[in-house]
Amino acid sequence: MPTQLTSGAITVEITSDAILTPRPQAVCGEIEEQLREALEHPLGLPRLNQCCVPGDRVLLVIDPQTPWLTEILTALLAELRTVAEPGLSLGILLPPDPAGNHWDCVRQQLPHELRDSASFVCHDPRDLAGNSYVASTEAGERIYLSNEIAEADLLITVGILCFDQLLGIRGTTSGIFPAMADKDTLERTGMLDARPATSNRLQERRALIDEIGWLVGAQFSLQIIPAPGGPGALIAGSPQDVMDAARPLLTEFWELQLEEQPEVILTSIPAGQFGWSMAARTLASLNELLDADSRIILIADLPVPDGPAARALRTTQDPAELARRLRKESVEDGIEIGQLIAVTQEQRVYLLSSLEAELVEDLGLLPLANQQELDRLLQTIPDYVVIPDACYARCRLA
User: Fold this and answer.
1) In 35-186, where do the E strands start and end?
2) How far is it, in rounded angstroms, from Cα 117 to Cα 355?
3) CB within 8 A of 317, min separation 6: which ones?
4) Which of 57, 107, 221, 323 has the greatest number of beta carbons closer than 10 A?
5) Considering the entire predicted model, what is its pTM?
6) 3-22+256-397 has which fold?
7) What is the mean pLDDT of residues 53-76?
């Protein structure tokens, strides 16, 4: 029976036997039911409305790539609205918008009541006045974050928990650091380096994220683990308790084991405005499984990339030099374009999308226009591995 790979308006059918998928029982119920259970029984904390008092400044630190964001924020707002009058002062803090539109798309997803009552701030890592010193790590590293974080009485992180090629695991307080750090802090801590990191380096980065979250007093986290076909799990509570509960679920849902090193990987990612970030992370992760000059085939309904690094890539004659330059600069799409360049320098990467073929080629990729072109390519490949939604997965060789 054919398996469908879907990304937005693009759907293809694959008949390969070598299809790796997370366990189908990963989907654990309707989103509203899971949200109600998570907020009624947070891990390590009382209910959210008991974690604050009237008049508190409550800051929602949001990862804009969070699936089901509208439903999550609606439930969160309902819980906060049970605090006695005079109520709370609400703020929303988001990372820099790579499209430069101050997250208008996210604003449209907000519940009307939250859109009308909360302040809305987009972090700017280059704004000296908008960032300030908050703490020093045990190793003596001085950390500068958005002023909004220092001024909040209650910090609530809202985000997605998934494996991440740069952070090890994305989620909980990674929405605070590195997402809301200033440019100098990002450079000093190596968070602008898009090159593949060793397992030890990933553990060090995650430990630094957790330490900074603790130093700034991040109290409450509401996180979602996606699964094929629906929300895999929603977890609320203290950041450390949420992370401890998430780790075995991430392994169950998204840790996949390959019996042997593949020569070709076919994968898809969810569609949306974050497609290029997801695509770059996915390619970087899969690249670690492959020998040089292997092939990755990506199904992705992607927008035209219009960030400064993407524009530079489309015109450069020397992608490797551009990648070196991006490691020293803080531009909105610098990390993802750096990852893209690194992979395309080593592998042949095919992209089935709705983008113009010339644009795809300018980005260093090989364009596929439709199912027919994909089928013709696959007919030339004896063996390949299919990994749906590989942006969330961690694949290991046996």
Assistant:
1) 57-62, 89-94, 119-122, 131-136, 142-146, 154-160, 162-164, 168-170
2) 39
3) none
4) 221
5) 0.86
6) 2-enoyl-CoA Hydratase; Chain A, domain 1 (3.90.226)
7) 93
Assigned CATH topology for domain 26-251: Rossmann fold (3.40.50)
Q: What is the mean pLDDT of the segment spanning 313-327?
A: 93
SS3 label, residue 341? helix
Sign of CA dihedral 170, 173, 178, 180: positive
CA distance 322 to 258: 33
CA of residue 336 relative to chain centroid, distance: 11
Tens-digit pLDDT profile for residues 14-50: 887 777 766 544 445 689 999 999 999 999 999 998 9
Give the rounded distance of the alpha carbon of 231 from its chain centre: 15
Q: Is the dihedral of CA 165, 170, 176, 179 positive or negative?
A: positive
DSSP string for 269-326: ---STTHHHHHHHHHHHHHTTS-TT-EEEEE---PPP-SHHHHHHHH-S-HHHHHHHH
Q: State the pLDDT at residue 379.
A: 92
Q: Can you tell me the distance from the alpha carbon of 14 to that of 384, in angstroms, rounded to the nearest whole number?
A: 11
pLDDT digits (tens, 9 = 90+) for 341-375: 999 999 999 999 999 999 999 999 999 999 999 99
Reading the block at residue 216, the tokens are 């700034």
Please provide residue 10's backbone torsions phi and psi, each rounded to the nearest 5 degrees: -100, 125
Measured distance CA(106)–CA(69) in Å, rounded? 9
Q: In a 10 Å sphere around its CB, with 0-12 CB exposed, 13-18 middle and 19+ buried, how is residue 3 labelled?
A: middle
* Residue 229 pLDDT grade (very low, low, confident, very high; cuts 50, 70, 90): low
| Domain-wise residue ranges, the chain | 3-22+256-397, 26-251
Given this model, what pLDDT does residue 26 score? 46
Greatest C-alpha distance within the chain: 68
**Mean of the per-residue pLDDT values of the chain:** 90
Q: How, if at all, do strands 142-146 and 131-136 pair?
A: antiparallel
Question: With 0-12 CB in 10 A as exposed, 13-18 as middle and 19+ as buried, what is 43?
Answer: middle
249: number of Cβ within 10 Å: 17
Q: In Å, how far are 96, 201, 224, 357, 393 from 120, measured between CA atoms?
A: 12, 34, 22, 38, 32
Question: For the packed helices 31-40 and 69-80, what is the interaxial angle rounded to 10 degrees?
Answer: 40
pLDDT tens figures, 270-304: 877 778 988 998 999 999 899 988 999 999 999 99
